[in-house]
Amino acid sequence: MVERLSNLISIFEKPELDFSKNRAEGDDLLGDAYEYLMRNFATESGKSKGQFYTPAEVSRVMAKVIEINKSKSQADTIYDPTCGSGSLLLKAADETPRGITIYGQEMDNATAAMARMNMIIHENPTSTIWKDNSLSTPHFVEENGALKTFDYVVANPPFSTKAWSNGFDPEHDLYDRFVDGIPPKKNGDYAFLLHIIRSMKSTGKGAVIMPHGVLFRGNAEGEIRKNIINKGYIKGIISLPPNLFYGTGIPACIIVLDKENAGAREGIFMIDASKGFVKDGNKNRLRHRDIRKIVDVFNDKLEIPGYSRMVNTAEIRENEYNLNIPRYIYSSEPEDLQDIEAHLKGGIPNRDIEAMAEYWEVFPSLKTGLFEPGDREGYSNLKIEIDDIRKTITHNNEMTQFAEKISSLFDGWAERNRSLLEGIKPGDKPKELIERLAEDLLSTFEDVPLIDKYDVYQHLMEYWTETMQDDVYMLVMDGWKANPELIPAELIIGRYFEKEKQAIEELEHQRDEIIVQREEMEEENSGEEGILEELKSVTGKISKAEVTRRINETKDDVDFRDELEILNTYLGVLEHETEASRKIKAAQNDLSMKVMKKYSTLSEDGVRTLVVDDKWIATLWEEIEGDVVKISQELTRRVRELAERYADPLPAFEKEVESLKNKVEEHLKKMGFEWK
What we know:
Number of helices: 23
Shape: extended
Distance between the termini: 84 Å
Number of strands: 14
CATH class of the domain at 2-327: Alpha Beta
Strand order of the largest sheet: 3-2-1-4-5-7-6-8-11
CATH topology of the domain at 2-327: Rossmann fold
Strand content: 5-15%
CATH superfamily of the domain at 2-327: Vaccinia Virus protein VP39
């Protein structure tokens, strides 16, 4: 590992790799490369070394929920008592507007060395990283012997450490860390939590990753949890998705601490974010939308059914200080109940129809267009044929108007930000650009029904990560200069050479028709006695040369007149196919020459149009438009599901069975048998 890191640094030190022009504020190429290497090392090493690295997405959440962005001075301090490679500290520091003074302690010698290197590479050379056990031998101590306290504390301590008290006596702790109780001898989760609380200033903020067990385990841990809650230190709890962390699959949470307002705190804000993730190899990962939603909801204390809730301290006391999230937030998906009466007597339960109320609020005419009252109270019938459901929904005027509204909102966002996008110039800061774009996009879709603003946000951030970010850095470095990397050839073709493109497509269509003709002849004349069968190569292909050879062999024999006719026809088809392919290739080469020439003649305004309109805005709209289409698809799926579920009630089946039974008995009688 050390050798790999050394080689990495030596590569970036080469004078030919000058990235100085691409060093927008906050951009750290070498640091990012180092981070990438450590992440993959953690992934590959599993339990052996995974503990030293906190996923960047989780780190960003922790930094944002402690609102470290409100730090006013570089003199403010941040501390991590189990800092590993320092990735969590750096991600938190990156959120500060003016920088921050970093302190970290790590007991593993090699990992502490990596943390120091990480700090230097990320341009934090004054950071203090100490190698030692923060529980038994805390390094950061005041002259009076008390623990040094910090403005911010973040940590991802090892889960459930068994030998946490080795090297010191918790009952006679020099730093008074265990006044709220002594953790169990074989589980150090609360030891780290108490150390962190003691290391916070009276106005300090903190965030620590803990296994879910700390929320509900009893005995000594239950008593500690009770004392901490009563002191008001816990500001919030965020339940995370499973399998996020390297080296463990144990479900985890973020405990958010805040001493500043502890005395007045009357509840704990809880979030169940356990279902918001995407699979990434053998691990799960928080998406851009998941991070943003957690942070927005937590910082604004937004209560969302099934996701977040402010839980009063009195309710927590009633639950004996058990903080297990499911006790307070019911996040399970509602069960799709089967209606027995509907299965027996037919009809679609009104309960199921009303469960789609969010759709009917937007498309009220669709409800009456799809359903009509049934012959019993509480039940309705499908008004149309099942096969007409999709057409009825997609052609509904309100559905069309909704799609137009979404398009108009997006167009408004694009126009508001056009000058920002077209005005990108050398020296600009890409991170500030994407923040402004994202904020406006979230605001644009804030109150739009059926469209989740965080889905829209995810489209933008994914596109930024995959493509747009590189484009912007290129523009920041080189200005609006045309090149194939910035402007793919298909964009040039789409705007300037549409006729040529259509001509090629027509040639390809003609070629495809010839191919179909050839394949039909091959199918008709293959097999054991097929004329073309013996001309096939081992790969099943028939060459023009083989056909020509066979024609020459049989052309003077009248017995082969029918065969010759087929062979000559087939040869003609092959020649037409070859000629068609030649024309296509020539047209493509001609178009490629025109495109390459166009790159050199494009003006800056032309480049702006291609990049901003034809590439960025068009791509993003395509993704958002897909969300609109999904709405009609989901509604169609659910309506069809209900219609098919109750289409054939039990009496209908019984009637059909009785009819079939009578038919069978009739047939048996005719055959001389009688059913008894």
